[in-house]
């Protein structure tokens, strides 16, 4: 049951400065791990505990369904990715909205031909925010490289531009997305290779230098039924979100599930676990995961939903904070 938001996270204290009505069977097998898997063990979020509101039904610059979101933990900014209004689904045109931590709209940036937006990350640099996000969308609208782009309010950037860095961390991979763990300073990359999705974890300092030669862990994730809707990393655990929007056959409490995976073994640690966060919302499609640590030092796993009516989709974001 979703409880009312009653934390000092709201306003200025958010983070540390510096498929059917039920889920189908889950395959527990996993692929070969890297011989040098070396992510120190950490606590993990208890997915069975309640979720709390950050905000509900906030407007974005795009009126289409949000795809993911990410925090700038130094400059206290929240960025939400959605498909650009009026663009074809396969075009890879994204609209990035900047919000404050109350969910108030601040600004936007358009990224044409970049990708689908399943996951992205933000790296603070001084007073600027840089997006780590997919780019050079293929014919299906998914990015074939990772880009490092400075967020610039009110501008449009084309994937063909030579003004930003781009990377292909894994030889032979054809699609990329990423997320950043701002607490343990690591980047997780999800990529498509040999007909399947795979995961690699890097020290963020290496990734920021464009050095992807020494992953801390690599694995093929377990087969988890349901529509993938986002992922992120906290310590030695990956978090994976699945589900679809409310419909005539998918009603409250819906089919949104969270799963945690040990990145050193590739095995499921908990889940899939049904989440009822925002169960009373209109539409309610799960879209995005991210990590933040409050100024008081509390780590939180945030999960997002696209909500609202067609033609006026909104953003709703919740969090879990119980660690085990």
Describe the protein's architecture and organization.
The chain is built from one helix and 21 strands. It is mostly beta strands and 324 residues long. Strand 20 and strand 21 form a beta hairpin. The radius of gyration is 18 Å and the shape is globular. The N terminus is likely disordered.
How is this fold's topology laid out?
Blueprint: E1 52-58, E2 66-72, E3 77-83, E4 94-99, E5 105-112, E6 121-125, E7 128-137, E8 143-150, E9 156-158, E10 165-167, E11 175-181, E12 186-193, E13 196-203, H1 204-208, E14 217-219, E15 228-234, E16 237-242, E17 257-262, E18 268-274, E19 285-293, E20 299-309, E21 312-320
Parallel strand pairs: 5-9
Antiparallel strand pairs: 1-21, 2-3, 3-4, 4-5, 6-7, 7-8, 8-10, 11-12, 12-13, 13-14, 15-16, 16-17, 17-18, 19-20, 20-21
What's the overall average pLDDT, rounded?
Answer: 90
Structural class: mainly beta
Unreliable stretches:
1-36
| Total helical elements | 1
Major beta sheet, strand line-up? 2-3-4-5-9
N-end to C-end Cα span? 20 Å
For the largest beta-sheet, the strand count, sense and barrel status come to:
5 strands, mixed
List key phrases describing it:
324 residues, mainly beta, 5-stranded mixed sheet
Give a brief rundown of this model.
With 324 residues, the protein is mainly beta. It has one helix at 204-208; strands at 52-58, 66-72, 77-83, 94-99, 105-112, 121-125, 128-137, 143-150, 156-158, 165-167, 175-181, 186-193, 196-203, 217-219, 228-234, 237-242, 257-262, 268-274, 285-293, 299-309, 312-320.
């Amino acid at each position: 049951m979703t409880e009312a938001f009653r934390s000092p996270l709201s306003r200025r204290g958010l983070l540390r400065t510096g498929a059917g009505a039920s889920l189908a069977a889950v395959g527990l097998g996993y692929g070969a791990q890297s011989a040098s898997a070396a992510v120190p063990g950490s606590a993990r979020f208890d997915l069975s505990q309640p979720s709390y509101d950050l905000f509900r039904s906030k407007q974005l610059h795009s009126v289409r369904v949000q795809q993911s979101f990410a925090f700038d933990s130094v400059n206290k900014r929240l960025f939400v990715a959605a498909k650009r209004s009026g663009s074809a689904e396969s075009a890879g045109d994204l609209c990035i909205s900047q919000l404050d931590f109350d969910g108030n709209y601040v600004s936007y940036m358009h990224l044409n031909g970049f990708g689908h937006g399943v996951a992205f990350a933000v790296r603070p640099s001084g007073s600027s925010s840089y997006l780590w996000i997919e780019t050079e969308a293929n014919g299906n609208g998914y990015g074939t490289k990772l880009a490092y782009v400075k967020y610039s309010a009110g501008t449009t950037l084309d994937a063909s531009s030579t003004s930003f860095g781009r990377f292909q961390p894994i030889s032979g991979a054809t699609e990329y997305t990423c997320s950043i763990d701002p607490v343990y300073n690591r980047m997780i990359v999800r990529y498509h290779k040999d007909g399947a999705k795979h995961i690699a974890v890097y020290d963020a300092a290496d990734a920021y230098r464009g050095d992807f030669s020494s992953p801390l862990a690599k694995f093929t994730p377990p087969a988890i039924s349901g529509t993938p809707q986002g992922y992120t990393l906290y310590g030695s655990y990956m978090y994976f979100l699945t589900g679809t929007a409310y419909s005539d056959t998918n009603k409250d409490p819906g089919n949104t599930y969270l799963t945690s995976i040990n990145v050193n073994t590739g095995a499921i640690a908990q889940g899939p676990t049904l989440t009822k966060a925002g169960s009373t919302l209109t539409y309610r499609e799960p879209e995005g995961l991210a990590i933040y640590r409050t100024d008081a030092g509390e780590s939180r796993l945030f999960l997002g939903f696209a909500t609202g009516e067609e033609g006026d989709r909104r953003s709703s974001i919740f969090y879990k904070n119980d660690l085990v």
